[in-house]
Amino acid sequence: MFDLIGFLIAGGIVGAIARLLVPGRDPMPWWGTILLGAAAAIIGGWLARLITPDNRGFPWIASIIAGVALVLIVRFVRSRTAS
Prior knowledge:
The chain is mostly helical. The protein has 3 helices and no strands. The relative contact order is 0.18. The N and C termini lie far apart (42 Å).
């Protein structure tokens, strides 16, 4: 239970930072930001384990980079479906 709460808090932090780093308007609800951040944390953590075995601070950086990529992908998909 506490792992899930911690994971959602980390997802919210990663998602919020990723959305702040990508300029422009992004109409995404708060729960979308948390889900995006949680997905980024999974992807970033997995990539960090592949790249560095000791993982000292790198998973957070990798998660934020993955979050920025996911924000850009979401924006791209939304712009393609809106046209």
